[in-house]
């Protein structure tokens, strides 16, 4: 399936800048914007639903080579779920059981996305916001960014799906430290804990994240998808099947391989077609 998302189109079924999730496109790079700047991009149930729909549609578009996820403005990537919504949507077990699958569906859509994901992190990135960022493949933040998961102060447990990204990038010890202490910490510590890939000056976050996305987009897109798949598979201790082993050789049958190695020998820049 190839669902093409044209440049500048809002997320599916949304119109205008008031939509809680926006999509912007620049060639093969798509930017997904968590768009509630008046609430520091705090997530709500409708926002989670739209994020799920958006990432699922983008995942199906073979013309995309990289997706950047960011929050609107420069004050926050995201502070997590909008606490004011708890009273109407998560005030008891029954409501939480309805809310949980909506949020977890969006997180799973991010986690299973075939395309490389770059998190552009301005300012605050905590709770559910950090849950989203942690599922991205490259995470670039500013020097003043702040991180943490202070859910213990709400009497709230972080579910398996919500902590899956943190477990992947930081491991069980750091994840548990963050959950038990509920402490918010700076970008330098986040880099040390492997929560972010790179820390840059605040004014350079957008440029650095977009340059990273363009570098990814300049590579062979099928190879990028294979690499994501292979790295994710490497965390599973189950032995590779014969088919999985052989898949690593499929790249030699692509047009992009012919373009790539011939361009190298000719000392020219390759232009990959994704075939």
Report a brief summary of the structure:
It contains ten helices and ten strands. It is of the alpha/beta class.
Characteristic key phrases:
2-enoyl-CoA Hydratase, Chain A, domain 1; 2 domains; 275 residues; disordered N terminus; alpha/beta; 10 strands
The overall number of domains is 2
Oligomer: single chain
CATH architecture assignment name of the largest domain: Alpha-Beta Complex
Distance between the termini: 15 Å
Lateral strand order in the biggest sheet: 1-2-3-5-7-10
- What is the chain-wise order of helices and strands? EEHEEHHEEHEEHEHEHHHH
Q: Choose one word for the global shape.
A: globular
Could you tell me the number of beta strands? Answer: 10
Main sheet characteristics? 6 strands, mixed
CATH class of the largest domain: Alpha Beta
| Percent of residues in beta strands | 15-25%
CATH fold assignment of the largest domain: 2-enoyl-CoA Hydratase, Chain A, domain 1
- Count of runs of 4 or more consecutive helical residues: 10
Can you say what the CATH homologous superfamily of the largest domain is? 2-enoyl-CoA Hydratase, Chain A, domain 1
Helix-strand category? alpha/beta
Task: Indicate the radius of gyration in whole angstroms.
Answer: 19 Å
Give the averaged pLDDT, no decimals.
Answer: 89
Which runs of at least 5 residues are low in confidence (pLDDT < 50)?
Answer: 1-16
Helical amount among residues, as a percent range?
40-55%
């Amino acid at each position: 399936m190839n669902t093409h998302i044209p440049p500048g189109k809002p997320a599916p079924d949304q119109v205008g800048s008031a939509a809680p999730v926006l999509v912007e496109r620049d060639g093969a790079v798509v930017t997904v914007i968590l768009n509630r700047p008046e609430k520091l991009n705090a997530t709500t149930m409708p926002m989670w639903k739209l994020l799920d729909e958006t990432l699922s549609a983008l995942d199906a578009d073979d013309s995309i080579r990289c997706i950047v996820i960011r929050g609107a403005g420069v004050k926050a990537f995201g502070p997590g779920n909008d606490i004011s919504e708890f009273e109407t949507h998560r005030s008891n077990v029954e409501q939480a059981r309805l809310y949980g699958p909506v949020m977890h569906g969006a997180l799973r859509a991010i986690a299973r996305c075939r395309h490389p994901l770059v998190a552009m992190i301005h300012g605050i990135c905590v709770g559910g916001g950090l849950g989203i960022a942690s599922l991205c493949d490259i995470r670039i933040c500013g020097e003043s960014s702040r991180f943490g998961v202070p859910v213990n102060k709400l009497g709230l447990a972080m579910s398996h799906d919500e902590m899956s990204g943190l477990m992947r990038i930081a491991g069980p010890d750091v994840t548990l430290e963050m959950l038990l202490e509920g402490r918010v910490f700076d970008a330098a510590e986040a880099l040390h804990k492997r929560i972010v890939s790179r820390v840059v000056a605040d004014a350079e976050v957008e440029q650095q994240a977009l340059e990273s996305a363009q570098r990814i987009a300049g590579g062979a897109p099928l190879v990028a998808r294979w690499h994501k798949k292979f790295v994710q598979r490497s965390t599973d201790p189950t032995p590779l099947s014969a088919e999985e082993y052989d898949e690593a050789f499929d790249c030699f049958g692509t047009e992009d391989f012919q373009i790539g190695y011939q361009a190298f020998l000719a000392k020219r820049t390759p232009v990959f077609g994704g075939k």
